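Saturday, quiet lab. Running sequence design on the structure tokens for the scaffold JK sent over.
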């Protein structure tokens, strides 16, 4: 009786959610009709895609995403291209076309790196991680999910972003809790229980500290921590967490999140009952989980639930057992055929090679820049030494024109050194926009140019001081005239007197 009441309540609640979503979609469609073919139209299409995904009408969402991508490419609107490539990639993951999904999401990732699209890159990293999970490569999924988490944290801590996006901070914090919870789930898949517990508990802590949140944002971390307790053999703690997650999921206003968390909780409870040899309860929850999973059209998990049902029915109802084994076999063939696996391996290999190449290019560019900085420092040091030598020397006196030239040259070298230090950071912020780089250089030059005046004044002062000192010292250094006694030539009589005296 209670189950029937709950089913009726859930049905009524779902109808209400769908009605609200359709109202919003109708409003967006009306806006779309009058919108010009510009970036605003691309953004409206993205909102429509998001709404259709939330009520699980993915095929309809796919058509709008294709339109959005087409317009974005025509406009060369990079952000729009990235967003709709990500939308399409998510669709292909759900359709189990992993090679196409990775192809699209890697294209989006390349654009975010080339254009320095920080916010969009966070969404793309999430999409790459999601795509890798669809063929059980959880190590790669962890790598990209971790990058997403750290980038999202850095974004929230950025003062400029906080000032301009106050209304988004709460939602960003919620997404951080989901990223951390997902890391917990992924670590479970590679049997790293300690990491799973660490991330699961941290995700719940983050979610609990956020005041305005949809219930599903707490339901998912509860599920992930429950998975860890089940694998650790603590069935009681796991069951409590799964039931808490179900309660949170039932309060959720987001249909997609609600159903995702419900099927995961029911599936895990079914496993717990199977392990406890309570087969009837296991069948009940497994069939409930499968019904929700099929609504999401998530065949990968449906495959595992069907295998569990086949095991439960074996020896009880062999007809149903065979039915579920056959269904799971068909699903496995479609999901993991050899050709598809090879395509995925090739795409992964190509992306790794591209990342290595980018890293090598970054290292070479940094080494080249460091060498240039070192040479500039040496040149600047030599030049400053020459100026100081000229200024402090006692004998060298330069003219006003030479002083002006030396001061100007000093400022030019300082400007060059300043540019080499700051250019990489400025280029990163302005995405190599020539106009902005040009005006930035002008601003830098205008800030450094006043330095020329004190250098010139100092040189002039030194030259005048030396000239004055030389002028004062000149009379003292003149050689004194020698007094020479005039000797008269001796006569013959004088000579005789001299001899007589001797």
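Result came back. Writing it out in full:
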């Amino acid at each position: 009786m209670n189950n029937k009441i709950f089913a009726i309540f859930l049905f009524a609640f779902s109808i209400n959610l769908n009605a609200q979503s359709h109202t919003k979609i109708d409003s967006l469609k009306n806006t779309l009709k009058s919108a010009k073919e510009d970036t605003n139209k691309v953004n409206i299409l993205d909102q429509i895609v998001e709404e259709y995904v939330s009520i699980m009408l993915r095929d309809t969402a796919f058509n709008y995403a294709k339109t959005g991508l087409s317009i974005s490419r025509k406009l060369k609107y990079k952000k729009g291209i990235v967003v709709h490539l990500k939308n399409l990639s998510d669709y292909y993951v759900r359709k189990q076309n992993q090679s196409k999904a990775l192809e699209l999401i890697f294209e989006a990732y390349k654009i975010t790196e080339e254009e320095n699209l920080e916010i969009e890159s966070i969404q793309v990293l999430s999409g790459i991680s999601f795509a890798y999970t669809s063929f059980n490569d959880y190590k790669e999924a962890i790598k990209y999910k971790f990058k997403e988490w750290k980038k999202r944290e850095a974004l929230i801590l950025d003062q400029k972003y906080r000032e301009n996006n106050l209304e988004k901070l709460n939602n960003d914090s919620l997404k951080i809790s989901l990223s951390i919870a997902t890391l917990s789930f992924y670590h479970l898949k590679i049997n790293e229980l300690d990491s799973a517990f660490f991330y699961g508990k941290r995700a719940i802590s983050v979610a609990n500290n956020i005041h305005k949140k949809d219930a599903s944002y707490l339901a998912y971390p509860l599920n992930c921590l429950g998975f860890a307790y089940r694998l650790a053999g603590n069935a009681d703690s796991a069951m409590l967490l799964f039931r808490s997650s179900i309660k949170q999921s039932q309060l959720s206003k987001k249909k997609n999140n609600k159903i995702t968390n419900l099927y995961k909780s029911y599936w895990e409870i079914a496993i717990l009952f199977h392990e406890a040899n309570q087969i009837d309860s296991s069948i009940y929850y497994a069939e409930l989980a499968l019904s929700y999973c099929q609504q999401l059209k998530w065949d990968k998990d449906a495959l595992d639930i069907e295998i569990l049902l086949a095991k439960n029915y074996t020896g009880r109802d062999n007809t149903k057992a065979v039915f579920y084994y056959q269904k799971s076999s068909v699903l496995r063939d479609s999901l993991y055929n050899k050709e598809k696996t090879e395509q995925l391996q090739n795409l992964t290999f190509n992306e790794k090679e591209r990342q290595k190449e980018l890293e090598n290019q970054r290292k070479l560019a940094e080494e080249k820049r460091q060498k240039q900085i070192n040479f500039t420092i040496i040149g600047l040091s030599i030049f400053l030494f020459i100026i100081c030598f000229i200024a402090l020397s006692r004998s060298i006196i330069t003219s006003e024109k030479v002083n002006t030239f030396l001061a100007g040259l000093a400022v030019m070298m300082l400007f060059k050194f300043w540019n080499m230090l700051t250019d990489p950071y400025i280029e990163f912020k302005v995405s190599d926009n020539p106009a902005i780089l040009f005006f930035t250089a002008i601003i830098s030059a205008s800030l450094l140019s006043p330095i020329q005046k004190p250098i010139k004044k100092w040189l002039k002062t030194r030259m005048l001081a030396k000239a004055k000192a030389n002028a004062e010292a000149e009379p003292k250094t003149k050689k004194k005239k020698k007094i020479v006694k005039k000797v008269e030539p001796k006569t013959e009589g004088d000579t005789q007197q001299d001899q007589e005296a001797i």
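Notes for JK: The chain has 21 helices and no strands. Residues 1-15, 479-484 have pLDDT under 50 and may be disordered. Ask whether to fix the surface positions before the next round.
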